Amino acid sequence: MNIHWFPGHMAKARREISEKIKVIDIVIELVDARAPYSSKNPMINEITKNKPRLIVLTKKDMADDRYTKQWVQYYEQCGYQAMSVNLKNFNEYQKVIEKCRHVLKEKMEKEKARGLKPRAIRAMVLGIPNVGKSTFINKLANRKATVTGNKPGVTKAQQIIRIAKDFELFDTPGVLWPKLDDEHVAKNIALLGSIKQSILPLDDLFIAAMRYLTENYPQLLKERYQLEIDLDDDNWIVETFDHIAKVRKIKPLRGETDYDRVMELFFSEINDGSIGQITWESPTCVNV
Ligand code: G4P
Asked: CB atoms < 10 A from the CB of 128, how many?
């Protein structure tokens, strides 16, 4: 995954979304439950204007349940509708549609009372790369391959697909950008695997992740790598590398621990969830 966002891309994405916004009833904003602040677009309020919005935290199966609940509550307290889902589980899709119906119930009833012809709710999926937009749309549309892409420059004929008698969806999602100039956000987005990790110095990312895991999920490090880190020990970083290399039998490189291989292994296990259910930020540490 690689994100290259330039001012031109942002303006284009914005323009395309502004056009579509006019004909939709609700925005389904997908964010990653493992970092529900960092995986949001910083200008979403401005972009979606006053359209009703449902914030859907995807990948809840990979996130820490405790934090997921807190984040859903947090967004609800901010005045949004919010829910968490595992998009690998098809039953969860119906819950999203149900929630959209619920959010728009009053509006649809008002239209009916005014004598307007009953019509389907029209929705659009928005989010930064890798949050599950194509998975969501393709599964509902019952298609296999994604045609959406993550490139803001990719255009194709827009289609509106009917998912249920009363529910329609744009077949192409709105692709937005994360706030990568914020160091906290860039770090978390890299840990989610949504951008090339190499945009940040890998060893800094490794150290930050290890520190966070030691403070918040020491048991996961113990289970996965039989690793216990003492952050007060001046040598903890080198010892951590050496320990993982030894436990995972990573061959030394010219007589030294192969630091790159250790990091590669660690990040791939972080990204694919094999270390465990981890959330990288809590609502108490960010100012949304
Ligand atoms: P995007 O359009 O927003 O860029 O995201 P996309 O749907 O391509 O999803 C990115 C990856 O996240 C995919 O994995 C997808 O399967 C996975 N994913 C989406 N939602 C969930 C979820 O709720 N839980 C879990 N565990 N994974 C989710 P991939 O490895 O790129 O593809 P695939 O091999 O799974 O198809």
From this structure: 28
Helices (H), ranges, 173-217: 183-192, 202-216
140 and 224 inside one domain: no
Please state, in angstroms and rounded to a whole number, the distance separating the CA atoms of residues 161 and 18. 19
Same domain, 74 and 138: yes
Q: What is the pLDDT of residues 206-225, one digit of tens each?
A: 999 999 999 999 999 999 99
Is the same domain home to 37 and 135?
yes
Distance 13 CA to ligand 1 centre (A): 21
10 Å CB burial of residue 9 (0-12, 13-18, 19+) is middle
pLDDT tens digits for 122-140? 999 999 999 999 999 999 9
What's the mean pLDDT in 146-157? 48
- ipTM associated with this complex: 0.97
Q: How many domains does the chain have?
A: 2
**Ligand 1 pocket test target in 83, 88, 135, 275 with most atoms within 8 Å of CB:** 135
Do 167 and 216 have their domain in common? no
Q: Are 268 and 197 in contact (CB under 8 A)?
A: no
Are residue 78 and residue 163 in the same domain, yes or no?
Answer: yes
Atom of ligand 1 nearest to the CA of 33: 23
User: Rounded to the nearest whole angstrom, what is the distance from the C-alpha of residue 129 to the centroid of ligand 1?
Assistant: 10
Domain identity same for 249 and 107:
no
pLDDT above 80: residue 163: yes
Q: Is 31 in the pocket of ligand 1 (CB under 6 A)?
A: no
User: Ligand 1 in contact with 243 (CB < 6 A)?
Assistant: no
Domain assignment present for residue 188? The answer is no
127 lines ligand 1 (CB under 6 A): yes
Q: Which atom of ligand 1 is nearest to the CA of 148?
A: 2
pLDDT of residue 153 exceeding 70: no
